[in-house]
Here is the input.
Amino acid sequence: MARLKQLSCFWYLLAFAGLCFLESHNSVTAEDVLPSKLSQNVGAPTLKFLYCYSCGYRKTFDQYVTIIQQKYPFIVIDGQNYDPPGFNMYLARLIGIVKMVVIVCILGAINIFEYINQPQPSWWIWCTENKLYACMMLFFVCNIIEGQLIQSGAFEISLNDVPVWSKLETGRIPQPAELFQIIENHMQFTDSKIELNNGFAK
Here is the structure.
């Protein structure tokens, strides 16, 4: 009986470790940065993307990186998840913390209602008796809620810290030809400013 209990605890801990791995994989997107071969080059043009990871725009970002580096190999490309401002981001993080605390309590069969002098409800008893199913269900439901809270729909682009495209304002992602034209115009404008500053007319 003792060995059966040990095996049961082992599987619960293994399941919890798997959930923690999934959680850490999802949370990486908050500081998700694509390294560039030219990231150490001082003075190289920098194209920055802030995109909504939960909207599935990471794949679109990767495609843009490929086509931009083929045409402009000297441009440094930086990509990060767009953290929406306001209450939603804090609420999503709070739900994530509460989710992991509740999962630990379920796996450890901890009666959290004892600490607030309340009788243990039937749904909590069910959770502690069906640990694996309850934890998986809690994990995925909370992840859906968190994803909805931080779903911004953003695909914001800036070149050398100058905003050049905003999906939040235009309602769409730019076509590659449009982005190429924006880059060309920006580079020509920058070159013109440099020449004028040196006293030469373009």
About this structure: Strands lie at 46-51, 76-81, 155-159, 162-166. The two ends are 87 Å apart (CA to CA).
